[in-house]
Specification:
heterodimer, A: alpha/beta, FAD/NAD(P)-binding domain, 6-stranded mixed beta sheet, 6-stranded antiparallel beta sheet, disordered C terminus, B: 3-stranded antiparallel beta sheet, 12 strands, binds flavin-adenine dinucleotide, binds protoporphyrin IX containing FE, Cyt_P450_CS (chain B), Cytochrome P450 (chain B)
Chain lengths: 463, 412
């Protein structure tokens, strides 16, 4: 019976993917590659075919790539129906229908949700609307920002020194613009990598001429009578002139369209089991609804089965492939999504990479190289085990860190390594901020053990 | 009399033409340590891969304390400081970065790709020269002169000096062979040292010229040393130049020769290559797996006691990483003994991995791709005259000494 259903599904079932970006595209390709011949529909609210985001804060800002041409390479012909430029507005779980904002409905036998995240906007709406205030998540954001930067911008203020904010600051400095970075924590990248590495990042900012302001928050954006942003007010009562403000305060998960659907979806994302099947709001796993990419949160065996939310390119790809596989295979062939979190960034000419879950670590050890030289390998420890690694311009050692995490290798690292320096002989506190304080910029968020989001209110509707 | 050890049989010249059955035997004991003075021999793909990324593994000869290690140090122990292939970070990284600023992106993004036309020209000229006979020696007439010409142009070494530097390169290369090392003939070791010094002195003359009169070549750029890491010392420039000169052709000659030999043994792929020259990319990758020019890395040690598959390896031991055995590890590859350029995960250890991963890989790939595609296209009805062909003695840089091939003619 079940096997018959899978056979039928693979042959002539209807699969709908909501979110036509990295995860959505890779899932669609995997479905076809694994022999799915039924109908395939991709729904995306952006009017563009899937494009790549990481270049938007790197090569594009530097003028080395056009914001209009970061299309994702296609691995195969898809034979799919594309519904671009129209958001999904609701989900009817029992009726197996996706409701579109234009009033249409799309029925599915299996659904993949890959709606990702969006940039957290500046919280004061009228200030956010000032001319010259930008966020950076989409192609449109990137076109608007690059055009403005090139059209004679003079002073840029970046609010938030996570990875994205730091990359923007780096690119602006390279373009010769004056840049102020305002960060609530004591240093850049603190949410993602902790205070010790943050201090290294702070040096990078300062050396490259960034006016870095830490331990401050932005209290207001001030506009001129023409409605153009003029200055930024900080909590230390200083005022910084600016004609461009880039708001880089992390992201919000695109789950609002699911509210009331009965799915375990909320501000922390959509919870799924390790096989990418979504939980409903009661914490019961669904059979026909799968999730992948930035919007998902799923338990990871290597990290105590905590639910992880990962805003990582590589995670979106791997999870999409696993979800697609599991959507069209029999129960016994399902695979868990066991991707090792891995992230990269390039800023101020330095290649930064991490594996594992740095914010889980409470201690850090520089096992190779030196932070003063900005070339090093650091590992994070938690309860006597290595849980993460970070490299600055030393990516070839990352694989070793990964293996240590996979093996639950002991921390601290007592043995010598090639290029072990005196500073690396002992573990130091990694210095992450109190997890109860909001930080923007962690690219991995430990989002607890509960699959369902308690804050969700179930209001049956739509049918 | 006991049977010779597996390591001895692998280095034994008698087994050079087909060491693969020995490697299969080796993989049955993935961490093999036969006798006290023997190296620890690692033959499984995943173990090699992971040791190449392990920061407890060193390429620096001064960390070797095991017996048999002394001779190993000697070839590099010559007045010239060790080149970066025999150094650990941070020195390795600094020298490699400076060398790279004269070779590849971001400083010289066009250096290799810009040579494409020139490579085609050299290949065309050499193949034209084959037209006179019906039997050719692919090694002497093509696979050797091609990469030598290329590395000479790249570095800025006069091509006509080849017979001079040849006489110094040969003993250095021979000293990389564990068989000759184990013999530890002091005379032999001294000769290798002298040859390396001579080669260095020869290159010093060229570097002096380039300092006065820089040109568009790597010696000029190495000597000028403009970059965030500053300049190399004169001695560092020389040992780097020696490394590049030798690594730049002693391996590629074998990749091209092994390539042609393998294609002649698998004529269906020779035919396909003739029809689809783009297949050269996959063919070269699969060759690097199936017949890798660097068969093993015999120069590693560990700077602390380690354990591989539960086998303890004491600090300072000699460790051999058997790239060619890992490349045919059934734990890693489906049908590993089959030459199959169509496999969907074309991966290999042929260029090593980790921080010492081949520096010249982009050049080596391009050379081999162009060479094999053009040989396939232009040689009419090529046939192997001797199978197996005669081999070079070296067990590390393994390949045929000659590859006699009969042809009906050479197409324009
Ligand atoms: C500027 C920038 C730089 C980055 N740099 C790096 C980096 O260096 N390294 C790294 O690992 N990661 C980086 N990332 C993160 C990486 O791009 C993401 O992890 C990846 O895009 C996630 O893919 P996704 O498909 O899950 O989500 P997304 O790419 O966010 O796609 C979701 C799609 O769904 C659409 N959508 C949302 N709601 C609806 C709806 N209701 N109906 C229809 N469609 C909807 C969205 O508009 C979007 O097109 C960067 C991201 C940005 C923005
Ligand atoms: C088919 C051709 C080639 C093969 C199979 C090959 C293979 C290898 C291997 C296996 C290593 C790793 C050594 C180790 O880990 O100890 C290496 C390193 C190296 N190769 Fe190659 N190589 C080839 C061609 C070249 C060329 C053309 C050049 C120069 C232009 C070159 C320059 C180097 C250098 C400099 C190193 C040392 C890198 C380091 O220590 O960081 N090689 N090569």
């Amino acid at each position: 019976m079940a096997a018959d259903y899978v056979d039928w599904l693979r042959r002539e079932g209807r699969i709908v993917i909501v979110g036509a970006s990295l995860a959505g595209l890779r899932a669609a390709e995997t479905l076809r590659a694994e022999g799915f011949t039924g109908s395939l529909t991709l729904i995306g609210d952006e009017p563009y075919e899937p494009y790549d985001r990481p270049p938007l804060s790197k090569a594009v800002l530097l003028g080395k790539a056009s914001p209009r041409h970061t299309e994702l390479p296609r691995r195969r012909h898809l034979d799919a129906e594309w519904r671009l430029g129209v958001p999904a507005a609701g989900l009817d779980l029992t009726g197996k229908r996706v409701l579109l904002a234009d009033g249409e409905e799309v029925e599915y036998d299996r659904l993949l949700i890959a709606t990702g995240v969006r940039a957290r906007p500046w919280p004061v709406a009228e200030e956010a609307e000032l001319d010259g205030v930008f966020v950076l998540r989409t192609r449109d954001d990137s076109i608007a920002l690059t055009e403005r930067l090139r059209a004679g911008a003079k002073r840029v203020v970046v609010i938030g020194a996570g990875f994205a904010g730091s990359e923007v600051a780096s690119a602006c400095r390279e373009m010769g613009l004056e840049v102020t970075v305002a960060e609530r924590a004591g240093a850049p990248l603190v949410g993602a990598l902790g205070g010790v590495i943050g201090a290294v990042a702070a040096d990078l900012h300062l050396e490259n001429g960034v006016d870095l302001r830490t331990h401050v928050t932005v209290t207001a954006l001030e506009g001129d009578p023409m409605g153009r942003v003029r200055s930024v007010h900080l909590s230390d009562e200083s005022v910084v002139e600016a004609d461009v403000v880039v708001v880089s305060l992390g992201s919000l998960r695109n789950t609002e369209w699911l509210s009331g659907s009965g799915l375990g979806a909320g501000p922390r994302g959509i919870a799924s089991d390790a096989g990418c099947r979504a939980f409903d709001f009661r914490g019961i796993v669904t059979d026909d609804v799968f999730v992948a990419g930035d919007v998902a949160r799923s338990p990871h065996a290597l990290f105590g089965y905590q639910f992880l939310s990962l805003e990582h390119w590589g995670n979106a790809v791997a999870q999409a492939e696993t979800a697609a596989h599991n959507m069209i295979c029999s129960a016994s062939d399902r695979r868990p999504h066991m991707w090792m979190p891995a992230f990269w960034s390039s800023q101020f000419g330095v290649n930064i990479k991490s594996v594992g879950v740095p914010p889980m670590g409470d201690e850090l050890m520089i096992i190779q190289g030196s932070t003063a030289e900005r070339r090093f390998v650091g590992v994070y420890g938690y309860k006597g085990r290595i849980v993460a690694g970070v490299t600055f311009d030393n990516a070839r050692w990352l694989e070793y860190c990964q293996r240590q995490i996979e093996q639950g290798a002991p921390f601290p690292v007592e043995y010598p390594t090639v290029d072990r320096r005196p500073e690396g002989r002992k573990a130091v506190p990694a210095d992450f901020p109190d997890p109860s304080l909001p930080t923007h910029g962690p690219t991995v968020t430990l989002s607890g053990y509960s699959p369902a989001d308690r804050r969700l209110v179930f209001t049956p509707g739509h049918h | 009399m006991t049977e010779p050890s597996l390591v001895a049989r692998i280095t034994d010249f008698a087994n050079r033409a087909d060491p693969y059955p020995l490697y299969a035997e080796l993989r049955r004991t993935p961490v093999l340590h036969e006798e006290d003075d023997d190296p620890y021999v690692i033959s499984s793909y995943w173990d090699i891969e992971s040791l190449l990324h392990d920061p407890r593994i060193s390429s620096d000869a001064t960390n070797l304390t095991a017996a048999g290690a002394d001779e190993l140090n000697q070839a590099e122990n010559t007045g010239l400081p060790p080149s970066f292939i025999r150094l650990d970070p941070p020195e390795h990284d600094r020298l490699r970065r400076i060398a790279n600023s004269a070779f590849g992106p971001p400083h010289k993004p066009r250096r290799i790709d810009g040579m494409r036309g020139e490579l085609h020209g050299i290949v065309a000229g050499l193949i034209d020269g084959l037209a006179s006979g019906t039997e050719i020696d692919l090694v002497d007439q093509f696979a050797y002169p091609f990469p030598v010409t290329v590395i000479c142009r790249l570095l800025g070494v006069p091509r006509e000096d080849e017979p001079r530097f040849r006489s110094w390169v040969d003993p250095v290369v021979a000293s990389l062979d564990p068989e000759t090392r184990q013999g530890a003939d002091p005379d032999f070791v001294r000769k290798a040292q002298e040859a390396r010094t001579q080669l260095g002195m020869y290159l010093a003359g060229l570097v002096e010229e380039r300092i006065k009169d820089p040109r568009d070549d790597m010696l000029s750029d190495l000597a000028a040393g403009k970059g965030p890491d500053g300049a190399m010392t004169m001695m560092e420039v020389l040992s780097t130049a020696v490394l590049l000169l030798i690594a730049g052709h002693e391996t590629t000659v074998n990749l091209i020769t092994n390539g042609m030999l393998t294609l002649l043994r698998h004529p269906e792929y020779l035919q396909r290559l003739r029809e689809e020259p783009e297949l050269a990319v996959n063919i070269v990758e699969e060759l690097l797996r199936y017949e890798p020019p660097v068969q093993l890395l015999p120069q590693r040690t560990c700077i602390t006691d380690i354990e591989v598959r539960g086998v303890p390896i004491p600090k300072g031991s000699r460790i051999w990483l058997m790239l060619a055995a890992g490349n045919r590890d059934p734990e890693r590859f489906k049908d590993p003994e089959r030459f199959d350029p169509d496999r969907d995960d074309l991966q290999h250890l042929g260029f090593g991995s980790g921080i010492h991963a081949c520096f010249g890989a982009p050049l080596a790939r391009l050379e081999a791709q162009i060479a094999l595609a053009e040989l396939a296209r232009r040689l009419e009805n090529p046939r192997l005259v001797a199978d197996p062909p005669p081999y070079r003695p070296n067990a590390v840089l393994r390949g045929p000494r000659h590859l006699p091939v009969a042809v009906d003619g050479v197409l324009p």
